[in-house]
């Protein structure tokens, strides 16, 4: 019991330390709290701190995360598994429970501060570029599913996760993987491949993309420039700032936001219980997303400060937990080659198709680059790439695309996954 309590404390306190470190070091901040949590979790779960399951126990699990304790006790009494597997199962049960709690709480907090009406009004050019980006992603992910995904165990779930990665990054990936009950190793390896391949893509966007795309795409013109610089500057500067959350002024607002998140999560979970067991988690996640978007339109809710950052805290907790469940020994093997190619096609293929569509519809190079950035790497990367482009006027387009990706990526990813499941 003491081990379980300590584990819970570690899972919720380590992210606090990681966030603190991001404010101490600009280098750590650029790497990102989610990536740091992910790496920490992998180390935590693979250096012997947590007990390892026996081969017999893994065979009995048959792909499940854990088993009912009474059933496992029977196996132990019969001598089919060692007694140490009882603790392994208990820890796995705790991890599974925490994962199913933190995501329903994170989604409302991430969406409360979204001013959906304003973002839908702001940039027509960005909306068109978003449409091109989503179209490119759908074409490539669907094509990749038939090329590689059908050779991957539950490849339809990978397709859904890839939509999540390239519409909202870690938050959408976490939500969709929870909704689809994705096996932890598959989640981790998909995310790992994306981070490695995505790093090369980001370097290209920061260095050579503008010069190359300007050869055949229209250049960004003054007709695109918006007159909302100060509003957008404040928005993008605040998105990754956790300061002020635990102040006398900030805590009451976060308590209110947390209470609303609990109510929305409970309502979504309750609605999910009305459906067959196989669909309950999916219905719950989509319901929570819908209720959260509706709540964001209530001015008093929308103006609660630091709710997005509070939601990201739970995403960091999720990343730490799910990474600690991964088994590095079984991850890097030839059987995952199709998954690697699927992710690679999604990263580079969607960019190529997007650029082709931008050429076809005469979308300028800077808007194309910032849209790819916002969808592939999420809003916090938008000002970084905008700075490299020497064009901060595209920040509004990037934030619009990225924030709408947060809002609608869950629907798109889950819908596509179940559509492909039928093939």
From TrEMBL:
Kindly indicate where the leader peptide sits in this chain: none
Per UniProt, the keywords (alphabetical) are: Membrane, Transmembrane, Transmembrane helix
InterPro entries in alphabetical order = DUF819
Record-annotated membrane-spanning stretches: 6-24, 31-50, 97-116, 128-148, 195-217, 254-275, 281-298, 310-328, 340-361, 368-389, 395-420
Instruction: Tell me the Pfam families matching this sequence.
Output: DUF819
Question: What is this protein's name?
Answer: DUF819 family protein
């Amino acid at each position: 019991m003491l081990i379980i309590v300590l584990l819970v404390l570690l899972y919720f306190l380590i992210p606090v330390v990681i966030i603190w470190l991001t404010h101490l070091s600009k280098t750590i901040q650029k790497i990102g709290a989610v990536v740091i949590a992910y790496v920490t979790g992998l180390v935590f779960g693979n250096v012997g701190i947590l007990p390892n399951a026996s081969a017999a126990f893994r065979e009995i699990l048959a792909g499940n995360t854990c088993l009912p304790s009474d059933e496992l006790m029977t196996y132990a009494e019969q001598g089919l598994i060692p007694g140490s597997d009882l603790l392994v199962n208990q820890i796995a049960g705790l991890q599974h429970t925490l994962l199913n709690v933190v995501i329903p709480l994170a989604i409302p907090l991430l969406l409360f501060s979204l001013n959906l009406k304003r973002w839908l009004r702001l940039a027509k050019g960005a909306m068109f570029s978003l449409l091109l980006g989503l179209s490119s992603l759908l074409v490539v992910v669907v094509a990749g599913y038939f090329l590689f995904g059908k050779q991957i165990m539950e490849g339809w779930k990978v397709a859904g996760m890839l939509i999540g990665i390239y519409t909202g990054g870690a938050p959408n990936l976490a939500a969709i993987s929870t909704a689809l009950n994705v096996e932890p190793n598959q989640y981790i390896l998909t995310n790992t491949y994306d981070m490695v391949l995505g790093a090369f893509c980001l370097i290209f966007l920061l260095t050579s993309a503008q010069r190359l795309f300007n050869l055949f795409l229209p250049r960004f013109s003054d007709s695109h420039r918006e007159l909302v610089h100060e509003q957008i500057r404040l928005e993008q500067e605040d998105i990754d700032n956790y300061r002020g959350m635990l102040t006398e002024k900030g805590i009451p607002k976060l308590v209110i936001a947390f209470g609303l998140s609990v109510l929305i999560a409970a309502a979504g979970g309750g609605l999910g219980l009305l459906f067959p067991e196989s669909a309950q988690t999916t219905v719950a996640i989509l319901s929570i997303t819908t209720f959260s978007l509706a709540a964001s339109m209530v001015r008093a809710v929308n103006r609660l400060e630091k709710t997005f950052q509070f939601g990201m805290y739970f995403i960091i907790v999720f990343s730490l937990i799910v990474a600690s469940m991964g088994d590095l020994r079984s991850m890097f093997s030839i059987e995952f080659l199709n998954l690697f190619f699927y992710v690679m096609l999604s990263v580079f293929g969607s960019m190529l198709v997007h650029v082709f569509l931008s050429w076809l519809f005469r979308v300028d190079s800077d808007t194309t680059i910032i849209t790819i950035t916002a969808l592939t790497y999420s809003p916090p990367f938008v000002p970084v790439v905008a700075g490299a482009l020497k064009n901060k006027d595209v920040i509004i387009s990037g934030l619009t695309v990225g924030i709408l990706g947060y809002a609608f990526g869950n629907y798109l990813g889950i819908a596509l996954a179940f559509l492909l499941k039928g093939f």
